[in-house]
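Deviation from plan, reported transparently: adenosine monophosphate complex.
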Amino acid sequence: MMKIFVFLGAPGAGKGTVASRIAEQGDALHVSTGAMLREAVKNGTPAGLAAKSYMDKGALVPDPVLLDMIGELLADAPADAELLFDGFPRNETQAEQLEALVRKHGATVARAICLDVPETVVLRRLGGRRVCPVCGMVFHVETLPPKQAGVCDGCGNPLAIRDDDKPETIKRRLEVYAAKTEPLIAWYEKTGKLRHVDASGEVDASVALVRDAMAD
Ligand code: AMP
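Because the crystal trials were delayed, the predicted structure below was used instead.
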């Protein structure tokens, strides 16, 4: 049966970094709706055109765009896939619709794992974040530097600052997180599937704690 792990936590908590490490080390697939949307914007697809103005403001992209993307992904995924959802669901409507999609595709949400990080750490991480616009690999100037400054370890292309990592947009994204996404922690708590993980330390430590939470 297809198994979904939902990663919750503020922007900058490390959802993408941890999910991509776990995916690299095994058979699970990292599903980042943010990365899928950035790719759609880059390619000028209809979903990308619909999403861009919301992303630039740090707002949530309308639910139907996301639900189409996730519906297609589940329809195409192998029946025994293990999917690590990073950035979806992001509000209660999406969480409810995910349950409907899960039933339709014979999948299950196995766990929701909340990566807990204090706001001071989140702000430091987002401020120093650098990303590869070509392969999507994520770095941090102080805590997770590339081997050569400004160059992607994975594909050798120049690193960039994400458009929405500007200070004003970071502030807006954190407000949106608190208003819309944080209530999902209580939502998943009620399902009995929620696990909390302290993700304020080094990447390797967070990866190990998340793996334990996935398996317990
Ligand atoms: P992320 O890479 O997860 O920080 O996502 C970057 C941006 O993509 C967000 O600030 C939103 O504008 C948009 N986005 C990603 N996932 C979702 C989602 N599940 N619902 C709405 N908007 C999303």
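The beta strands are 2-8, 29-32, 82-86, 107-116, 129-131, 138-140, 194-198. We consider this an acceptable substitute for the interim report.
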